Amino acid sequence: MLVLLTNALAFAQPAGAPRSTPTVAAAPAAPTISILTAAAGAMVLSQGAGNASLDLGRVSYFKGTSAPGESIQKNSRSFVVSTRFGLKVDCPGSLASTKVNVSMSRLDAAVSHAIAIDGTTLGLAAQSMVQSMPCGSAGEHRLDVEVPVSTPAGSIGSTVAFLATLNR
Question: How far apart are the first and last CA of the chain?
Fold first, then answer.
């Protein structure tokens, strides 16, 4: 915080003259993204501001899924586990009419499984997810995780990053 203390005469105002304080608008804060459980999706667990996890439970090529809100598709070489999730963007300090662009990327390079959101396969480079989304709004999205049948049994995990930027 910066505080300016001045003498009224320094601004050519007579001593005792009424003073006016200029109104200064605070700069908008960076948009925040919340990951939410969709009505027909797997449970999303919040892990603090800006972090959430989606537990797909025990999944098997032969036994299917074990968590509600998931589906599985099988082919000869892989299986795809699908679910839905919500994404909400808030823009503190911005006008209600402000819009954002949302991009997504994968933060790990695991080759054991592929991840797609709304049909777009994620990589390490950021890709557009939503263009011109109104601040304060939420949308539902589809997550697909494709696992080759040759992948050894056990846990798999990945990190997906979402970034919202104000339209200028």
Answer: 27
Q: How many domains does the chain have?
A: 1
Q: Would you say residue 67 lies in a domain?
A: yes
Q: What is the DSSP string of 47-110?
A: -STT-EEE---SEETTTEE-STT-EEEE-SSEEEEEEEEEEEEE-TTS-TT-EEEEEEEES---
User: Does pTM surpass 0.90?
Assistant: no
Which structural domain, as residue segments, surrounds residue 110?
Answer: 59-168
Residue 94 lies in a domain: yes
pLDDT category, 15, cuts 50, 70, 90? very low
Q: Summarize the confidence of residues 140-147 as an average pLDDT.
A: 94
Residue 85 in domain: yes
Cα four-point dihedral sign 158, 72, 40, 154: negative
Token couple for 113 = 């499984």
